[in-house]
Design a protein that fits this description.
By secondary structure, the protein is of the alpha+beta class. Helix content is 25%, strand content 21%. A hairpin with a 5-residue loop joins β13 and β14. It is globular and about 65 Å long.
């Protein structure tokens, strides 16, 4: 018996038990468990599940081949998903319903800076590194999204990952000194105070980021999130736009954790009022629940200047409006966009920028609205009912009933 217990303890400490539990808890898109490695989900390992268009929900615009932010050339996305335990909340022990999502605008092999802008619709949230993005008009690091209490460890892990991948030659040449990390709160389903995301999880999300299809719903940073009081999480979409200067892609990825049921509209239909049951159950909540938050990442290969990138990112708010979003007082609704690489300076320090004229960006603005709207609906469609800490339960938006309501209003694509 003592030998058995000792063996069990070695397994527990090695992380094998943790990894296997994660794979079982996230069986929709499993990744093989490695002893000593946190299991997770990555962009290239996506299970076959319906997306919003598959259910007959109508959307405007032409999506790219994957209908994802990874349709923008060079973009890679990785998730690590942590789903462990059940029962009463025990801070530091679980249950765990959280994770981290990494978006790399130029992939893992490049630290080239990109045109960038940050827009805050309602600033009750955190986006580290945003001051320098706004000041410089450039993004110098990957973008990571996680839960509110894990921002610090994720930020530190991005710095250490960057220094390992791009070893500095001098003390002044740190790869990612001001990394961009965003958050929304999963406190109602997850042991958020236990801070279960660690640096190895962050490194794994970055190392395993891939182009191609992107896992959605209860994955990565979106694992424990809810939207309009249905289960929410990660969603993505893209649009292809033809302009006189060429064909361009606008991609959007969201971590959706916002909204009240009665406000929700899909394809112009008041879904929140038509499906008013299946409200979340929070047995331990003793006070009025605060509104959640929303992080939106916009990427494009269109040649834009930083001020034009900001104009694009502001249109996220219009996409939210099409879904009935209000952006209430406690909702941290913060958006960041990235575009083309910064041009190399000449030997005399001169940079030559190429950009579409302000008069020529209307289709890109429209594409941002449409891709934002579809990204959030994709998050709702992909998410599955989740039971978390102390029996807290958030139900998935039922596909069959959604289709019935859309049909009733003449909005279902047959």
């Amino acid at each position: 018996m003592m030998k058995s217990r000792a063996r069990w303890e070695r397994v527990r400490r090695s992380g094998l038990l943790w990894a296997v539990t994660l794979v079982l808890g996230a069986a929709a898109e499993p990744v093989a468990a490695d002893p000593g490695q946190p299991a997770g989900k990555v962009a290239g390992k996506v299970a076959s599940k319906p997306r919003a268009r598959d259910l007959g929900i109508p959307f405007d615009g032409q999506p790219g081949p994957h209908n994802a932010i990874t349709d923008v050339p060079g973009v890679e996305v990785g998730h690590v998903t942590l789903i462990v335990g059940h029962g009463p909340l025990r801070v530091g022990k679980g249950p765990v319903r959280t994770g981290v999502t990494a978006i790399l605008p130029r992939g893992k092999s490049s630290r080239t800076r990109s045109v960038s802008a940050v827009v805050s619709l309602n600033g009750n949230g955190e986006l580290t590194g945003s001051h320098w993005v706004q000041e410089s008009g450039l993004l110098e690091s990957p973008i990571l999204i996680t839960n509110t209490d894990s921002v610090g460890v994720v930020r530190d892990a991005v710095i250490s990952w960057g220094n390992r991948r791009f070893p500095p030659s001098t003390v002044l040449e740190e790869a990612f000194g001001l990394p961009v990390v965003a958050e929304t709160s999963d406190a109602l389903l997850n042991d958020i105070s236990g801070q279960h995301v660690n640096r190895e999880h962050v490194w794994k999300a970055l190392d395993e980021a891939r182009p191609g299809p992107v896992a959605e719903g209860n994955v990565g940073g979106g694992t424990g999130m809810m939207t309009s009081e249905f289960k929410g999480g990660i969603g993505t979409s893209s649009r292809v736009v033809s302009l006189p200067s060429g064909k361009y892609t606008v991609g959007v990825l969201v971590q959706a954790n916002y909204g009240r049921r009665g406000d929700l509209r899909i394809a112009g239909v008041p879904i929140g009022k038509e499906i008013a049951d299946l409200m979340p159950v929070f047995p331990q909540l003793q006070e009025k629940r605060r509104d959640g938050s929303l992080i939106v990442v916009v990427g494009t290969d269109a040649p834009l200047l930083p001020h034009q990138m900001a104009r694009l990112v502001r249109r996220v708010s219009v996409g939210l409006g099409r879904l009935g979003a209000v952006s209430y007082n406690s909702s941290g609704d913060i958006f960041i966009g990235f575009g083309m690489p910064e041009p190399e300076p000449t030997a005399t320090g001169i940079q030559t920028w190429t950009a579409i004229s302000n008069e020529g960006i209307d289709k890109l603005l429209q594409a941002t609205v449409h891709a934002t709207e579809e990204s959030i609906v994709n998050a709702l469609i992909a998410a599955e009912t989740m039971v978390g800490a102390s029996g807290a339960t958030v139900y998935a938006l039922p596909h069959d009933r959604l289709r019935e309501v859309l049909r009733k209003y003449g909005r279902l694509v047959q």
